[in-house]
Amino acid sequence: MRLVDRLSAETAAFHPDADEDVRALLGDSASAADYRRFLIRTYGFTCPVERAIASVPGIERYFDPRRLRKHELLRRDLTSFQMTTEQIDGISQCPVPMVDTPQEALGWAYPIERAALRHTQLFHHLAAIMPGEVAFTSSYLKCYFGSVGEAWKSFGRALDEIGDRPQSSRRVIEAARAAYRYFRSWRLLADELPPHAPHAPHAPHAQAPALHVPAPSHSHSHSRSHSHSQPPLSQAAQQQQQQQQRQISGAPPRRAS
Prior knowledge:
By secondary structure, the protein is mostly helical. It has twelve helices and no strands.
């Protein structure tokens, strides 16, 4: 069995929770506020995970760095919902642990790459029921527009290469399961919306292009690009993230001095 299929089986118990927001948006009663909430929550998980993956030495051998720009597309969409830079920077983010190896990195990437499989379906559905809003807030949903199947196949090939030994494949699976557990726990704890954030989208200067990702390069280059790094979290956001980390890990809360 290929590793991508093993991952699907080993994480199946987490899929209903992970897919809940998309299922709700695929209903006829979905609103622009619901879609905006989905983008906020997705950004709060995707941004720290992509940062963690990008910091892993040698990850570019297996995983095209251009795949790690989804959080930038989400920021563009939220900006089109008239959220300010300060409001976006203040979004609660999942407290992701240190990711040290390419095996762990691909495991943490699995929930994000799997979610992209339904983007085209979700985009067409939302475009039919709220065309005005989706016209300017769908950069993330169109990240692999026209190449979803090839992007998934490319990810599967990377998993095959990195999980060629039982110990390596086990590490990928354990990391993917950890990613889903962190997402589920953080989702229960996180505040979903920043206060007083506007709702109506506006047209940006240009719509973001899709991320056309070819098969990963197998060169042994260790150069990493930091051109897509995000600004540091605000002090309030850092404190909130630290509190969530303690709650997820079961540590007692820090007492105020």
